[in-house]
Amino acid sequence: MPADALSSALLPAGLHDVLPSEAAHEAAAVERLLAEFAAQGYRRVDPPLVEFEENLLSGPGAAMSKQTFRLMDPHSQRMMAVRADITPQIARIATTRLKNEARPLRLCYAGQVLRVKGSQLRPERQFTQVGVELIGALEAEADAEVVLLAVQALTAIGVPHLSVDLCVPTMVSRICAGLGLGEEEIRQLRGALDRKDAAAVAAVGGPAATLLESLMSASGPADRAMQALAALPLPEGAEKDRRRLTDTLALLRAAMPDLTVTVDLVEHRGFEYQTGLSFTLFSRAAGELGQGGRYRAGAQGEDRGEPATGFTLYMDTLLRAVPAAKAPGRVYVPHGSGWESARRLRAEGWVTVAGLAPVGDAAAEAKRLQCGHWLAGGDVKPVG
Amino acid sequence: MPADALSSALLPAGLHDVLPSEAAHEAAAVERLLAEFAAQGYRRVDPPLVEFEENLLSGPGAAMSKQTFRLMDPHSQRMMAVRADITPQIARIATTRLKNEARPLRLCYAGQVLRVKGSQLRPERQFTQVGVELIGALEAEADAEVVLLAVQALTAIGVPHLSVDLCVPTMVSRICAGLGLGEEEIRQLRGALDRKDAAAVAAVGGPAATLLESLMSASGPADRAMQALAALPLPEGAEKDRRRLTDTLALLRAAMPDLTVTVDLVEHRGFEYQTGLSFTLFSRAAGELGQGGRYRAGAQGEDRGEPATGFTLYMDTLLRAVPAAKAPGRVYVPHGSGWESARRLRAEGWVTVAGLAPVGDAAAEAKRLQCGHWLAGGDVKPVG
């Protein structure tokens, strides 16, 4: 929602009142998404808006430190933080309160997050995150499940022209490490790859240059990309990433043959804390709708914590891609018609708007109150 | 949810993780309440979690000042406040962004609020508020509409043994002022009435003593209370309150003859900012579920701003009174059963839990994953 002059005077930048039709639209979409998650066994949890800073910003949460508002807790005299991301909270719940629940553990959530600064792409400082986490499963089947679930849920709420971009953000570092490149060279290469700068990749790539250039040019529609990738000689560590990509894609194809899938073999940005197969969800109409991928729940580093994957959807972008449901018809029920007659209309699916005092022209009053119909005698009549 | 040892170590006092079954229970109840509000023409708005302090804590919002966390906004360099109550935000939206919408304006909301301290009665520092505001209507029909809507919505989510306690928190001051008592005497009388201390009322009541004692002893079941009230000689200002109480009760009786209604003629606590007919919603099982009443939206004082009424429900108390819906059956779908067979089961209303790898004993695996059933060949079988 673009801030109008009035709201920008009243509210801090990046914070908005969500007004009637849009608020209902968002609420309906969130509930439908959560219903899709629940239907596949994902159970809802609701962590609090605020936690102790040291818990919320440890491990993967540390990435959001600069984006996080702090509050002093007068009760404990400790600093608290307002969540800027819900994912670390779900990982915390899974690895503490629910650590004795059977694995894989399937959890989902919806809630508000608050950030210190908006970005150019997303000026909002508060938005609704909706997502799932699948904790304790290492299989490619788990990677495929969360991608398919995201696609299924987004399709259910009416997102058109959906596509999934798969990546394995660890692959480039594994290739470089396998070919003996040092940390500083890898960092420089990352920059060049992020800019899709083939000349710079060639210049600093050393023994990895040819391979990385091939990865860059192979990125695109999934089948072509995987064919090109299959022909490349990869060091051992990266071979694991290639196998996971191949297996996951096969599972996606088997479940949803018509899904548009692309593969980006050098993608890295936005996946700094991912440890394996990752993905971005796109709609041609609205751009990026959300992202997800593998991480370690409960601790950082590849061999610590529990294997986990999941995704987060950003409702602000997403709603731009989704048509609002048709609102049910509004009937003006004139003063004195009685509670029971209004109740009957609601049971038939109407929204009733009660007249609180007698009026001369009920049809005109209905129109003034944005009702398309009014109750005349016992009949619902359209407004003139 | 009582904090267990683990959560109290992890989270600040009064803040909780809402765990699976409870989170779904709350979400379903909130959505059902909002659907009931929407069916009577109340449209949802979602104000932000955070606003400029000077806006959020002006007017009726000032009451929550000590309960409100502050944040510095690095963008504007102004202080922001985390909402401790949603009602003032809805009044702000109605009188600014929606000031040109037709009156009466019907709005509803659901959201989280955060408070600096819990109370003895409600140790939680974060909870969900759900409510409605009816703005721009002076009629008794408006008072009755919000009471009836609250009752209807609470009944729809299964609250048993519901009762409504009506009061007019302005009546005592109007009686005292009408009989010439000063501010200090009124303040002392308020204290005595709050303690239901008849002796103190007699001692400090002066010319109002007899009348106030009659009001105290008349409080109780509505019909008896109203009969007693009708016989009392009231000063002019209080006469208006009596008439409103009588008219509203008559409207409630006409719509819901079986509703349990009590009247408290001296109630005042918790209604400091109310300017007319007010009410508390009770369930025998869970106690106080919410409250509401008349106020002035957009400004304080009886003759400023717009006339408004509404109510707020507290989900934490409320859920204790409401049985959770039966969860749909969970079916374990063994590895290799295929996406399509799981999809078919979901279409039949099952929750599907996919096996991510082959297992020897599918029935045992189903049980381990809290599924009551598993898919064997094409058939859903109960677990052992």
From TrEMBL, chains A, B:
Top-level taxonomy: Bacteria, Pseudomonadati, Pseudomonadota, Alphaproteobacteria, Rhodospirillales
UniProt name for this protein: ATP phosphoribosyltransferase regulatory subunit
Cytoplasm keyword on record: yes
InterPro entries, A to Z: aa-tRNA-synth_II, aa-tRNA-synth_II/BPL/LPL, HisRS-like_core, HisRS/HisZ, HisZ
Pfam families: tRNA-synt_His
GO molecular function, one term: glycosyltransferase activity
Top-level division of the source organism's lineage: Bacteria
Record's subcellular location: Cytoplasm
Positions contributing to L-histidine binding: 85-87, 115, 129, 133, 269
Further comment found in the protein's record: This function is generally fulfilled by the C-terminal part of HisG, which is missing in some bacteria such as this one.
Family: Belongs to the class-II aminoacyl-tRNA synthetase family. HisZ subfamily.
Chain's role: Required for the first step of histidine biosynthesis. May allow the feedback regulation of ATP phosphoribosyltransferase activity by histidine.
Record organism: Azospirillum ramasamyi
GO biological process: histidyl-tRNA aminoacylation; L-histidine biosynthetic process
Residues covered by the Aminoacyl-transfer RNA synthetases class-II family profile domain: 28-334
